[in-house]
Write the structure tokens for this entry.
Amino acid sequence: MRLITTYLIGLVFGVGISISGMANPAKVLNFFDVAGIWDPSLGFVMGGALIVTFIGYRYVLKRPTPMLSQTFHLPGRRDLDLPLIGGSAVFGIGWGIAGFCPGGALPALGTGSVDVWIFVAALLAGIVIANIIQAAMARTTQATA
Amino acid sequence: MIETVFTPFQSLFGGALIGLAAVLLMATVGRVMGAAGILSGLLQPQDFQDWSWRAAALVGMISGPAALMLVTGEFPAVQVPVSTTMLVIGGVIVGIGVKFGAGCTSGHGVCGMARLSPRSIAATTTFMLTTGLTVYVIRHILGT
């Protein structure tokens, strides 16, 4: 039940990404090319997603628990720190180079495009590299503490 | 560079479906609909139950283009205007960035912003700016 539910939710997300144009790097990069061949579509994707999520979350988060889990897993931190800002800045550089963000690329795997599979393999490699760096940093912090 | 057509209605409707998925995931398993978070959690799951819902969501996402094809008769367009080298370099950089930044366009830009999280607002502002700057440098200064 839980797995069928999350499969179907993933499907809704994947169809949404596919319809919106977010699976198409040419379209995504043109959104950022305000000085060139600008395509404002991505703004409408973000706008549509934000409106629905903003309203939907108001109702959902009023409930004591989710339907299929004991708790809401919400990030509780509100402080800004260097990994957050630095990591986000780095993410943007990569997004600008490749044209894919994770949410656009994962559904696009389903088109069978070799380019997408190459990007996602590189994305996974980047996550693994970050995991290794973070583990090393945690060890250093423990050693000096 | 490949010119693309402005699609306000499809994009708004697709965006609304992305939002619907985010609301439903929170309502059922109580999780943030962040593509980077779901993917990186698959590599370091807490337990089998944590791994399995992520895997199911990922398979659902990958089924998206095929489901759309049943209705429209064709896969969504995937036009890649950059070289394979740039895809690989960009992919590794995106992976490192989303892991340290703890989120991507869907996690911070949609779910976190919808909760008015200060961290997500700061993260989204930052990556939208650096993406725009990178595209500007590549297209208008380096001229590739």
Observations:
- Chain A touches chain B through 117 residues (CB under 8 Å).
